[in-house]
Amino acid sequence: MFRYIFKKIGYLSLINKHMLQNTKPGKNNNKPISPDLEKNLEVIKGILHSSDLAVHEFNFGHDRRFKGALIFIDNLADKKEIHKNILQPLMYDALLLPMDMDFTQIDTIWKSLISMTDNVKVTLLGDLLDSLLAGAAILLIDGSKEALAIKAGKRDARSIEEPGTEAVVRGPREGFIENVNVNIALLRRKIKDTDLCVEKYVIGEKSKTDVYIVYLRSVANPKLIEEIRTRLNRIKIEAILESGYIEQFIEDSPYSVFPTVSNSEKPDKVAAKILEGRAAILVDGTPFVLVVPMVFIESFQSVEDYYARPFFASAIRIIRFLSYIISTLGPAIYVALTVFHQELIPTQLLISIAEGRERVPFPAILEAFLMLFAFDLLREAGVRLPKPVGQTVGIVGALVLGEASVQAGLISPIMVIVVSATAIASFAVPAQTDSGTILRYIYLALAGIAGGFGVIMGLLATLMHLASLRSFGTPYLWPVSPLNLSGIKDVFIRMPLWTMSKRPKAISRNSSDSCNQDPGLMPAPFKKGSNDSK
What is the pTM of this model? Predict the structure, then answer.
């Protein structure tokens, strides 16, 4: 009996949900455009109810016998372009055309009078409203069942400048901006190839955000591109306001602390990854471009590594690895040694640590948690506050709190050194800052519970988790696991460019065109008499 009642309740709820969806505003907007101009204007005004909706009615043609209307959003459209390229040709240039020309045909107006190139012919009211809200000017003609959406929108954008999150010493200074069309142009400047494909999607029922997939058809794996299309088409949401929305809907492991989708503000970095066989996802309104698939090792690589000579680049990369180890394991190792494994600490150092902790009333693990929490608090406050105030809060807060805490006997000096080194090291690998922050607290808790054994168990669990991750079918630990000798040249050290002649095997298309340069490009001194003419 209860099962029958539950089924009835579920059935009634589905009917109510269906009725609510069908009665939502905007669901009946896919009606055909009426040939009656006045009726169309009345319907559009009734739907929008907006004070910035501009409606300009006019007569044109010989004897002014044709009636038309131009509709646009006042704050989105460029009035100068509308007057110069739409209204002026219709009201004045039309007089130069034959008297028997039928201007009730949108195709006739489009081909004979409109000088703007980006135009779309629409026949449904819903498409008309979408184009209007996107910034287009809508041309309606009395007696025509079609309308012309003319891209006459204006869009203010900041200038191209160096991104603040990825500053480099050597390399291009340009970065992506919020205008997706400019971002695509920046990529096309880097890759001037006919195989560069750009696919457009519109995601968001209310925001209708333009999302683009950019890839090289001859290099990218077709299965990768098809998987991206499937995941993007699956997204059903009201608004996409930043590429982070897309990232959270398409990532492989949403419950993992490690990112499986990379992002960048630098066109040269994104172009280099596209040339390897990856695909870029550009979202209108944000300078952060997503790139898939992602592997763990690329978090420690910088685009500047490939502009410098290999010796310095390799040394800097090793420093990044050490920095990530220090940022995640530094406080945990300190707590494990001072609480559980004092015999591993040299005697003089152990005496110094004991003297520093003599007045501290808290256990080492609580002391470490308090210091790390204070550091994360200062960092968050410095980021959110205005720049001049944020820098002051970060510097003064760290100095005052640290010095006062040591003098009051609440924190030991050695703990201040450990947390300071951890804080500095955490900024060396920006791509793994989020995961490093979470792992730092997890390893610290394990060290306080079980000492070095707990830290080792945490490391093994992390390694097993990393080995199980995939990013759009690519193993996250590639080329270390599974081992690939060709890809290992660019992991812990950066071999010379002339030795890396093949694209990543796990990412790019498996074809005969797997080489990105000619072999045998090793520089050699010029031998006198070999090529000179006598």
Answer: 0.86
CA dihedral 350→353→354→355, nearest 10 degrees, is 120
Question: How many C-beta atoms surround the C-beta of residue 228 within 10 A?
Answer: 22
Residue 409 has pLDDT above 90, yes or no: no
Query: Residue 399: pLDDT above 70?
Result: no
Three-class DSSP category at 194: coil
Find out whether the peptide bond into 293 is cis, omega within 30 degrees of 0. yes
Question: Per-residue b/e over 397-425, b at no fewer than 16 CB within 10 Å?
Answer: bbeebbeebbeeebbbebbbebbebbbeb
Long-range contacts from 490-495, C-beta under 8 angstroms, 24+ separation: 490/297, 490/301, 491/297, 492/314, 492/317, 492/318, 492/321, 493/310, 493/314, 493/317, 493/318, 494/301, 494/305, 494/306, 494/310, 494/313, 494/314, 494/317, 495/310
Query: What pLDDT digit, counting tens, does each position of 253-278 carry?
Result: 999 999 999 999 999 999 999 999 99
Question: By the 8 A CB rule, do 110 and 90 touch?
Answer: no
What backbone torsions phi and psi does residue 491 show, to the nearest 5 degrees? Answer: -105, -80
C-alpha dist (Å) from residue 197 to 188, 245, 273: 10, 23, 14
Which of 273, 281, 124 minimizes the C-alpha distance to 212?
A: 281
